[in-house]
Amino acid sequence: MKRKVLSAILAVAMVATMMVGCGAKEETAAPAETKTEAPADKATEEAAKTTEAGGKVGVAMPTQSSERWINDGANMKAQLEALGYEVDLQYAEDDVQMQVSQIENMIAAGAQCLVIASIDSSALVNVEAQAKAAGIPIIAYDRLLMDTDAVSYYASFDNEGVGTAIGEYVKTAKDLEAARAAGESYTIEFFMGSPDDNNAVLLHRGVMGVLQEYLDDGTLVCKTGRTSFEDTCILRWSQETAQQWCENYLTGFYADEDLDIACTAFDGFAYGVKAALQGAGYTAENWPLVTGQDAELMACKNILDGTQTMSIYKDTRLLAEKCVTMVEAVMKGTEPEINDTETYNNNTIVVPSYLCTPVAVDKANLEELIIGGNYYTKEQLGL
Ligand code: BGC
Questions:
Q1: Which residue did the predictor score with more confidence, 257 or 51?
Q2: Which atom, in ligand 1's list, is nearest to the CA of 62?
Q3: Whose CA is closest to atom 9 on ligand 1?
Q4: Which of 37, 149, 266, 283 is most buried, most CB within 10 Å of its CB?
Q5: Domain boundaries, the chain
Q6: How much is the pTM?
Q7: Which CATH number is associated with domain 50-158+315-356?
């Protein structure tokens, strides 16, 4: 219901900004039928209203090195601008100090609200306190901001649910119950997310919630012995590190036996694993089950050609929409939609959250989910 209302507001705002030509981007054009008869002066009035109602919002994103964050930033900017806000969107290219400086600059430039997807979620405590002292509310975007009471709301996906979905996928695809009953086993290695990202810890917990029992009884065999979060986390979600680890595993522990499952937490890791597998001579005949996260365009193409088995579809348009309702709430005193008030304790407060639902995507449902959901077109996917 609330989504419909927001969409209607967005449509009106888009028409208004388009008709007075004040900077709406071409790709945010409203559907043709909504362009109809609004007289120019009415549109100007509407635009003036939305601009008056707006303000400056600083959006701090972690990196442009992975596609998902580029989409997140673009969606946030488009949706906020459509509501009349002025947006300062900055990427810090995984440089923690650069992100701190960017946020300081946003505060100095008069931002009235900050939306932050952190690089290191505990490294922003001072600049967050600075924002709080200046009366600037903060929304945590996708990654929880830790150790601070300066954050008002958190918009994300169910992060443990992402891990559970990956674990369940492995369990079903390899029919671990049948393997257990038959006394068979599969080899598996883990490539988990960054230790400074709370999401990564939760994802690992979700994966192990499903797979631990099969590791315990030998249905899954991890030859490196690296199953704990501490042993499998990869700083800053580095694709290169994942590739290097996988190369080392394949030439060492797996020199005489195939790796059956590469359980990775991120599409970028799956790309690194793919390169390592190709380098080690794996072919379609012995290619392992490879998991990922984000349903990036490249990952979807790899799923179609069989070099990645699955990913987790996280609709960044929906996440941006939820985050925008939080910006509206802190700017205008409205009520955002919240569906979790218990889970996200950042060591200082429990942050009221909206968690979107992650969905596993593989070859079987890719067309329906991704093309049907208008996430990528057939042309983008090369179909
Ligand atoms: C996000 C994931 C993403 C990862 C690497 C995490 O915080 O939740 O969607 O794959 O960062 O960018």
A1: 257
A2: 12
A3: 294
A4: 266
A5: 50-158+315-356, 160-314
A6: 0.87
A7: 3.40.50.2300
